[in-house]
Amino acid sequence: DPNCxxxxxxxxxxxxxxxxxxxxxSVSQQKTAGKEILKARxxxxxxxxxxxxxxxxxxxxxxxxxxxxxxxxxxxQVAPSVLQGLIPDSHYQAWLALCRLAPLIFQPEIxxxxxxxxxxxx
Length: 122
Known about the structure:
With 122 residues, the protein is mostly helical. The protein has one domain (2-121). It has seven helices and no strands. α2 (10-28) packs antiparallel against α6 (89-105).
């Protein structure tokens, strides 16, 4: 039952919740030089194999608080690579925790609940 396997509403709680506000805060902390580095990292990120569209660095930085769920899904996957060294370590660790949780959230079904619980506790 997908409703039992998906206890949270992914779009609103995760993408338009945690990811949106983490991203907005990460971008707002950047001075002009940091924003330029972030745009370049995003635009040059190789999205091959993700099934997602190419990251739009300028758009993701300029409109950090006004993006849609699909944009935040891309950001969720690239954040650890593009934010490293640009934000405080405690914020970076929070991003890493969110990114470790993401694959568990987006699973359409849980076939092995004990294994899922072990992975979610790591």
